Backbone:
């Protein structure tokens, strides 16, 4: 059997790099897409020589889609595409420029890539499209554009899933809803978040089960359920730091 291939978009993110290492350890050939290819050098030293890379500017949807198509052709197709690009901001005044940047990356850029990947899977007639979203998408929050953009992503993925069913295509669409990654855990942080290693392992386990929607880590399913059940008058009184 020929080697399996996967494309990871947003490969500079720590989570993407941990996923890449784990997939490579399972013998999967990788295509990595990132804004800044030079920052992938330390990762590439740990990956097999047949790993391919491609530069993307997520503010340029046409460029992203073409780059994805080119990488796909170089790999001669792929079984899995993971979209892990995201932007957010925490400016209290909610400047339009900052909100627009979040929408450009998380809505327009995301859709350009998800739509492009789905079209490639449709042509190939099978595959798995996965995107890292967030439980933030399930209800509004103080980072309004971020929450709303994650809600858009979740809704769009569900639409693609229905579309695959309508076309009777064995294309799996997976929405991975993250809770909180504690990126400082390796440096001794004791915050209530899982390490990149745990998060990546759970993501890959969920992808293998072809789950439509999964919560990572698992305990965030309970947080999500409680969050969605809270009546408005309590939810709106949440305190933000
Ligand atoms: N961190 C958490 O606790 C948490 C919680 C819930 C959900 N999530 C979700 O999990 C995913 C990963 O989170 P993270 O914190 O690891 O994210 P991150 O480090 O900010 O990574 C986001 C990725 O998006 C890429 N990106 C952003 N703007 C871009 C642009 N203009 N052009 C090309 N690439 C661009 C970044 O590339 P560069 O590095 O090159 O900029 C990076 O690879 C995101 O979808 C996030 O929403 C995270």
Residues:
């Amino acid at each position: 059997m020929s080697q399996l291939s996967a494309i990871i978009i947003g490969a500079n993110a720590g989570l993407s790099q941990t996923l890449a290492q784990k997939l490579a350890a399972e013998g999967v050939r990788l295509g990595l897409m990132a804004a800044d290819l030079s920052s992938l050098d330390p990762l590439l030293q740990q990956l097999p020589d047949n790993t391919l890379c491609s530069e993307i500017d997520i503010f340029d949807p046409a460029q992203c889609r073409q780059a994805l198509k080119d990488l796909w052709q170089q790999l001669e197709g792929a079984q899995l595409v993971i979209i892990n690009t995201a932007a957010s901001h925490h400016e209290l005044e909610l400047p339009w420029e900052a909100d627009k940047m979040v929408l450009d990356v998380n809505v327009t850029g995301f859709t350009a890539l998800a739509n492009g990947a789905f079209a490639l899977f449709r042509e190939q007639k099978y595959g798995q499209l996965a995107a890292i979203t967030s439980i933030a998408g399930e209800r509004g929050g103080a980072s309004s554009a971020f929450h709303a953009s994650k809600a858009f992503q979740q809704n769009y993925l569900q639409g693609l899933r229905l579309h695959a069913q309508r076309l009777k295509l064995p294309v799996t669409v997976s929405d991975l809803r993250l809770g909180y990654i504690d990126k400082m855990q390796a440096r001794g942080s004791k915050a209530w978040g899982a390490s990149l290693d745990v998060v990546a392992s759970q993501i890959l386990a969920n992808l293998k089960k072809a789950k439509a929607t999964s919560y990572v880590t698992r305990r965030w399913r309970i947080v999500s359920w409680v969050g969605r059940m809270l009546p408005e008058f309590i939810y709106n009184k949440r305190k933000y730091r």
